[in-house]
Design brief:
The chain is of the alpha/beta class and 267 residues long. It folds into two domains: 200 residues, 2-enoyl-CoA Hydratase, Chain A, domain 1 (Alpha-Beta Complex), CATH 3.90.226.10; 49 residues, Lyase 2-enoyl-coa Hydratase, Chain  A, domain 2 (Orthogonal Bundle), CATH 1.10.12. The protein is built from ten helices and ten strands. It has a six-stranded mixed sheet, with helices on both faces. Helix 3 crosses helix 4. The longest helix has 19 residues.
């Protein structure tokens, strides 16, 4: 059996913590990506109230396992195009699986989130960073480009010009700049980022989580299609949410007690 590189803890408050555990730098090796995909699919199939994704105390995730870029047949060469395509698929499946978890996901970024580590944070809905954190897409410094969604999720989050700046130069941004450009949503004192992420996740987990998941689907998928297509999708999901117990509880609570007093079951 391979070593467990990804651990999932389901807490009593409804929050699941997905933690990377691959040595000091949490390199996103092929095996870690397989385990990450499996863990994320399990969270899709049996979703908690919310999910926090985290890594080590100093390094959230430092990126791909660079040794896997070297050809096993010829150590003086990089892997072949076919091998690169297979490696890229591991990243795509794993990070898409995280992005497709139908609940709010929060990356708690302790320190370095570089390359694939930054792309993992981008696959989450929210990012809470330590004031010591550094983020970036340094692949260009290896003569390559991001292969885990960086060229697509990053410009959608911070705009194409800023994304090109980070990707073309490979520079790392500190937490304050990451906050200013919208790469992270909140910066907290080092050592408190996980607690803050858990606090926010618990707040979300107490809400109408099924509706949150449907809203997430409408937003994320809507960004990939035309406005009219997105509006049609919203109408479909708007009708679907009325079939949930939470919608019934929320509407009845509002009519009887006013806003903000409903207790939701997550069904």
């Amino acid at each position: 059996m391979p070593e467990a590189l990804v651990h999932v803890e389901r807490r009593p408050d409804g929050v699941a913590v997905l933690r990377l555990q691959n040595g000091k730098v949490n390199a996103l090796s092929t095996e870690l990506l397989r385990q990450l995909e499996a863990a994320a699919v399990a969270l899709q199939d049996d979703p908690p109230g919310a999910v926090v994704v985290t890594g080590g105390e100093r390094i959230f995730a430092a990126g791909a396992e660079i040794s896997e870029f070297r050809s096993p047949e010829d150590p003086g060469r990089v892997i072949s195009r076919r091998e690169a395509e297979a490696l890229g698929q591991h990243f795509l499946r794993a990070l898409n699986a995280v992005a497709d978890i139908p609940r709010a996901t929060i990356a708690a970024i302790s320190g370095y989130a570089l390359g694939g580590g930054c792309e993992l944070a981008l696959a989450c809905d929210f990012r809470i960073a330590s004031d010591k954190a550094k983020l970036g897409q340094p692949e260009i410094l290896l003569g390559i480009i991001p292969g885990g969604g960086g060229t697509q999720r990053l410009p959608r989050l911070i705009g194409p010009a800023k994304a090109k700046d980070l990707i073309f130069t490979g520079r790392q941004v500190r937490a304050d700049e990451a906050l200013a450009i919208g790469l992270v949503d909140e910066v907290v004192e080092a050592g408190t980022e996980l607690d803050r992420a858990l606090e926010r996740a618990a707040e979300l987990a107490r809400g109408a989580v099924v509706a949150q998941g449907l809203a997430k689907r409408a937003i994320d998928r809507g960004l990939d299609i035309t406005l009219n297509g997105g509006l049609d999708l919203e109408q479909q999901l708007f009708a679907e949410v009325f079939t949930t117990d939470d919608a019934n509880a929320g509407v009845q609570s509002f009519l009887e007690h006013g806003p903000g007093k409903a207790t939701f079951s997550g069904r």
